[in-house]
């Protein structure tokens, strides 16, 4: 496969990284354990892996070799890997005050899903989900502070 053909995945990876970065920037502003760079890398890697699987499926080099690639299995692998990273952002308080980092872990899973979506070529859907995620992370916090909705972790 020509090297120029290989670079066709790059714009999707950059786009996924930008979307993930927007979400990561919000997490960074709130001083969460996973921020801008982590979210960018998770989204970009997800898009890269899905784009790579699409390239391999279309590559004549592998035709007739019996190579089988199931993109949905790759999605499962991405989700499992990101879940491991997300688990590292969750901390239980030693004082028994609760658990912190669950929203950041969920945002990492979401940017992985955005990267997967972009990797499959659904750019508008990836953008829409990124904007919806930012709305959840910012607007719902604003409503919580004004006691318009119940807080995620009510005070004890």
From TrEMBL:
InterPro entries: MgtC/SapB/SrpB/YhiD_fam, MgtC_SapB_SrpB_YhiD_N. It is found in: Cell inner membrane; Cell membrane. Residues 14-145 form the MgtC/SapB/SrpB/YhiD N-terminal domain. It is a multi-pass membrane protein. Its main location: membrane. The keyword Lipoprotein does not apply. Pfam families: MgtC. The chain crosses the membrane at residues 6-26, 38-57, 72-92, 122-143. Keywords: Cell inner membrane, Cell membrane, Membrane, Transmembrane, Transmembrane helix. One of its GO terms (cellular component) is plasma membrane. Belongs to the MgtC/SapB family. This is Protein MgtC. It comes from Pseudoxanthomonas suwonensis (strain 11-1).
């Amino acid at each position: 496969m020509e090297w120029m053909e290989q670079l066709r995945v790059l714009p999707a990876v950059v786009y996924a990284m930008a979307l993930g970065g927007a979400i990561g920037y919000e997490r960074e502003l709130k001083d969460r354990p996973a921020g801008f760079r982590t979210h960018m890398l998770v989204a970009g890697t997800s898009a890269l892996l899905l784009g790579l699987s699409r390239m391999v499926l279309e590559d004549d080099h592998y035709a007739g070799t019996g190579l089988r690639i199931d993109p949905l299995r790759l999605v499962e692998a991405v989700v499992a890997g990101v879940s491991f990273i997300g688990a590292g952002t969750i901390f239980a308080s030693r004082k028994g005050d609760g658990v912190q980092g669950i929203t950041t872990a969920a945002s990492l899973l979401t940017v992985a899903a955005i990267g997967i979506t972009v990797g499959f070529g659904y750019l508008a859907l990836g953008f829409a989900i990124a904007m919806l995620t930012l709305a959840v992370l910012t607007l719902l916090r604003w409503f919580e502070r004004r006691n318009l909705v119940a807080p995620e972790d009510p005070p004890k």
